[in-house]
Amino acid sequence: MPNIGSVHYTKSDIIGELKAVWVHADYGHGTGLATGNNQLSFDGSYTITYFDAHGALLTVLNLVIIKRKHHYDLPWFKDDVLVSVGIGLESANALSAGFYDV
User: What is the rounded distance in angstroms from the CA atom of residue 16 to the CA atom of residue 44?
Assistant: First the structure.
């Protein structure tokens, strides 16, 4: 199934920083590091750097995590252009989301 993926975010020891582990049907898997939110919650705006399985830089995106009543909406942007959208669920102090590329 092309253009789909999953990402799992956990909070680091630094407020406003998230660690990511991701998998994508077309791009494999890897990690990421998001910075920019100065809150204890997941919701907010981040700059996120994604790396491949070997630690090589893949891309830098802007991520907005929007808390809804029972879920989170996640749009990712590159140079102010929407590139992916997702929906996530918080559980056990982590945020897991499925997404697709637009």
Answer: 9
Instruction: Provide φ and ψ at 80, rounded to 5°.
Output: 65, 15
Residue 24's DSSP bridge partners are: 5, 28
pLDDT beyond 90 at 34 = yes
pTM above 0.90, yes or no: yes
What is the number of alpha carbons within 13 Å of residue 43 lying toward its C-beta?
A: 10
pLDDT digits (tens, 9 = 90+) for 61-72: 999 999 999 999
Measured CA to CA, the distance from residue 64 to residue 44 in angstroms comes to 6
Distance in angstroms (rounded) separating the CA atoms of residues 58 and 70: 31
pLDDT > 90? residue 1: no
Whether the CB-CB separation of 53 and 29 falls below 8 Å is answered with yes
Closest CA to 87 of 69, 78, 79: 69
Cα separation, 84 vs 29, in Å, equals 16
